[in-house]
Design brief:
The chain is mainly α. Helices cover 49% and strands 8% of the residues. It folds into 2 domains: 1-49, no CATH class; 50-273, Cytochrome Bc1 Complex, Chain D, domain 2.
Length: 274
């Protein structure tokens, strides 16, 4: 109970910082740098009371609890480190898996485990992945947290891993749609921002590491933990591209490209964001 109260107070305080900048747009514009610094300071202060902790707890229960038609847990799911091993798995994803002959990120791999181990249909395994308090986002929060403090190290050994990186790079630079947008539009140059939101230059190793290392994250504005799949899906939406299908190869490829750009960074998620 105390943990829940502390988290609720933290979210209120963080929202208040953002709210002050919204209520005073002229002042916020004049002091953009200091406002951004203040938001970063509050994030650091609230890190120990991140609501993502609750999602992690739920994800751990889901990982260990029998489920699906076969009433089997996910605890023997192989995420690349061996059956049931979650420590360090996230920082080495996406990667090639021989049993599917595909490069998979965490969420597509979890769908594989849900269908093969638990006997779920693919449709049921993918059902409502971005919904309120979704099981998939909780599972990702739990597994990702087990890589905290480790170095981001996506493999590039298998030909399909190299192909995924190349396709992801093409997607990053591809510009289309009614506004001629691409990932590179917002994330291909230094010192860009939208309103008070800094836009990391994902072609710069330091920026790429800082950005990739903090997803999944609890988003105060949405009251939910959001995964990298959701972040990229939302980017496609904002570019006015066709909706990216959940666990699509395009999303996995783009994730591979971003992970490789962030290679060597220290993983720090789940984080807290606006």
């Amino acid at each position: 109970m105390h943990k829940r109260i502390s988290i609720a107070c933290s979210v209120t305080a963080f929202a208040a910082v953002i709210g002050m900048s919204v209520l005073s747009p002229t002042l916020a514009f004049a002091q953009a740098t200091s406002t951004t610094d203040e938001i970063a300071r509050y994030r650091q202060m609230l890190a120990d009371d991140n609501p993502a902790d609750l999602a992690e707890d739920k994800g751990e229960d889901l990982w260990r609890k029998p489920g699906g038609p076969k009433m089997v847990s996910l605890a023997q799911c192989d995420l690349g480190q061996g059956p049931g091993k979650v420590a360090g798995a996230y920082v080495k994803l996406p990667r090639y898996f021989a049993d599917t002959n595909k490069v998979q990120d965490l969420e597509s791999r979890l769908v594989t485990c849900m269908t093969t181990l638990q006997g779920m249909s693919e449709a049921d395994a993918k059902k409502n992945p971005f919904g309120a308090n979704s099981n998939m986002q909780a599972l990702v929060a739990f597994i990702a947290a087990k890589s905290k403090g480790m170095k981001i190290d996506p493999p590039q050994n298998h030909p399909l891993e190299k192909e995924a990186y190349a396709i992801g790079k093409q997607i990053f630079f591809y510009r289309a749609g009614p506004h001629d947008f691409g990932c590179v539009t917002c994330h291909g140059a230094p010192a860009q921002r939208i309103r008070l939101q800094n836009l990391p230059n994902l072609l710069d190793a330091k920026d790429a590491q800082a950005a990739f290392a903090t997803w999944p994250a609890y988003r105060v504005s949405q009251g939910e933990v959001r995964t990298m799949q959701h972040r990229l899906w939302d980017c496609f939406r904002q570019q006015r591209f066709p909706e990216a299908q959940y666990t699509s190869e395009a999303i996995t490829a783009l994730t591979m490209y971003l992970a490789k750009n962030a290679e060597g960074g220290t993983f720090a998620a789940p984080a807290m964001k606006r």
